[in-house]
Design brief:
The chain is of the alpha+beta class and 162 residues long. The chain is built from six helices and five strands. Strands 1-2-3-4-5 form a five-stranded mixed sheet, sandwiched between helices. It binds coenzyme A.
Length: 162
């Protein structure tokens, strides 16, 4: 693995994070927008997260030149039914050119440790079953359990990047 430093994201990382999302693809719309239109909302979301560190942790893995290789965003959700916090991991993305070198694993392990330090009851995330990360058992290898009896519902106000 390259020598990676895990640190909190800064507003100035937004452009690189937008580039990583575009390298990964997934959204034709996002990939055809001007880069600054993708980075703009990301910068606002970074600012939102770092202004409330109790509620969110937004971290990047950066190389020795501080180039961002990947990022992870987690939200510490007060969950009444659990009587505790659940960490909802909304984003885990590593630049494809840096994939398979342990960067994703380092980000996820970092957040597992942070949740433990916070006294969190569990972490949760969604993973598309058609994605390579699901097919290769990325999360299972890191100790996560798939819940076959739980349906994942979303309520849309609009499509992403529309
Ligand atoms: C999933 C993702 C974050 C993994 O990051 P990464 O830095 O490539 O992962 P790592 O190098 O830490 O790999 C950890 C393990 O998962 C496997 N793995 C992860 N992603 C893989 C991939 N795309 N292809 C093959 N194997 C993969 C690795 O083989 C490795 O297993 P090993 O430790 O037994 O060798 C990255 O591929 C990515 O950003 N994918 C697109 C976005 C995505 O699917 N995010 C997750 C759901 S939101």
């Amino acid at each position: 693995m390259p020598d990676v430093n895990i640190r909190e994201a800064r507003a100035g990382d937004a452009v690189r994070m937008a580039e990583i999302l575009r390298e990964i693809g997934w959204s034709d719309r996002r990939n055809t927008l001007p880069l600054e239109e993708v980075a703009g909302p990301i910068e606002k979301l970074i600012e939102h997260c770092v202004s409330d560190r109790e509620g969110h942790s937004i971290i990047v893995a950066a190389d020795e030149d501080d180039t961002v290789l990947g990022f992870l965003n987690v939200h510490w959700v007060p969950f009444i039914m659990l009587g505790s916090l659940e960490g909802y991991v909304s984003d885990v993305f590593v630049s494809p050119s840096e994939g398979g070198m342990g960067v994703g694993k380092a980000l996820v392990e970092h957040v597992i440790e942070e949740g433990k330090q916070r006294g969190c009851m569990r972490l949760m995330l969604t993973n598309g079953k058609e994605k390579l990360s699901y097919k290769t058992g990325f999360y299972k290898k890191l100790g996560w359990t798939e819940r076959p009896s739980v349906a994942n519902f979303v309520y849309y106000y609009r499509e992403p990047w529309s």
